[in-house]
Each structure stands twice: as C-alpha cells, then as structure tokens.
Specification:
By secondary structure, this protein is of the alpha+beta class. The protein is built from five helices and eight strands. Strands 6-7-3-8 form a four-stranded antiparallel β-sheet, sandwiched between helices. Helix 1 crosses helix 4.
C-alpha cells in the first residue's frame, strides 16, 4: 500500500508508462466479488446465463453506444468473470482499419516506442509524471478505465434495481495486445473459455487470489 494525498490506496494495476486513452487493443478481465458465480454456470462446455448473466451480456453490447471510438471485439460472460477485447480506434486518428489498430497503433506507435522512452534515463526525470500518475489526478474520458467503470456501474445499478444482490471485485485486469500473434492467442482463449471452465484459474475450486 502506498500513501497518496494522505490516504492509503491499493497500487494501480494499470501500466504506469501507458495512457489508456491511446488507440489500441486491450484484453480485459472483470471478476465478481469473491468470485461468486452470479452469472450462471457452464453445462456441457457451454455457458448458461442467469438473469444477472443476461444483464452482464446486454450491457457489454451497450458499451459502444455510450463510449466513442470503441469496438467490442470478442467477449465471453463466465460464471464469475467477464473477458473481452476492446479496441479504441479514433481517439488519436480517423482510421477505422481494425488491423492497423491492432498492429500499428499498439505495437509500433505506442507500446514499443513508449518502452524505448522509458529506458532512456532522461525520460525518468522526477519532474516528469508517468501516465499512471496523471491518471490519479484525472482519469480522463473515453479511456479503458472510464469505459469499464461505466460498464460495471451499469450492471450493478440494474442488478440492484431488480432486487438482486451483486458486487464486482473492485479492480479489473488489462493486457495491452501488442501484435497479431498475441491477439490470436487471446481470441482463442476467450472462445474456448467455457469448454475449459473446469481448469480455469477463476473456477471456484481454485485459490481465490485477487487479480
């Protein structure tokens, strides 16, 4: 735990060198509190959604209607978590080419060039703030954090409105997809998640360690 503005906080899971409003592809995992299986169950390798699972599914599709320049690619609602690939495309340029976003924006324009800057001693001057430090002051609009925050809030709000007890884990996990090979691997993982549920690290039989 680190101290910030006289309050203790959990250190951010976000990459401190990255601006999550950048165009790019992001693999997102959001878990329910204590990994409770609110969203249904997997039967014969297929996900069977509960009423809460339907809400989680419906509001995933609503993301594109409430955020700009975002593409919902592959996703899956599992019993106690949601995986999705979100693509920000247009925050920095007028380019609707998904492949360019996956390969050029993530691998070349942003992730690798930022890593090069980070390795430069002059880049690490104390007078400069990382993107992560700037997010503590201003989360920003149309960032991954604001989009996921709005999604989680919508699912929670409507679950409670319908009389269901429901709670998310406070944080979420992200992975910046850097190239086509990583994208293909993550895409296959999401599609095969229900079929491999028994071996999934989020299965209730596995140790409950927060991501």
């Amino acid at each position: 735990m680190k101290k910030f503005q006289n309050k203790y906080r959990v250190p951010s899971a976000r990459a401190q060198w990255w601006d999550y409003g950048n165009d790019g592809a992001y693999f997102i995992t959001i878990c329910t509190a204590h990994r409770e299986c609110y969203f249904g169950d997997v039967l014969d390798g297929e996900m069977k959604l509960s009423n809460l699972g339907v809400l989680a599914d419906v509001f995933m599709h609503e993301i594109k209607n409430h955020a700009k320049n975002v593409i919902l690619d592959e996703y899956v609602v599992m019993p106690n978590h949601v995986h999705c690939i979100l693509v920000l495309d247009g925050n920095e340029k007028n380019d609707n080419d998904l492949n360019d976003t996956l390969v050029s924006s993530v691998e070349t324009t942003h992730a690798l060039s930022l890593q090069s800057k980070q390795s430069n001693p002059q880049f690490n001057r104390q007078t400069e703030k990382t993107s992560g430090q700037q997010r503590l002051q201003n989360q920003g609009k149309n960032t991954i954090s604001s989009i996921i925050g709005s999604y989680k809030s919508a699912v929670t709000k409507h679950s409670h409105r319908l009389g269901y007890e429901f709670e998310w884990q406070s944080r979420f996990h992200d992975n910046i997809i850097r190239d086509q090979e990583s994208y293909n691997t993550i895409l296959a993982y999401i599609k095969n998640n229900p079929a491999k549920w028994e071996d999934d690290k989020f299965h209730p039989s596995k140790p409950d360690t927060e991501i």
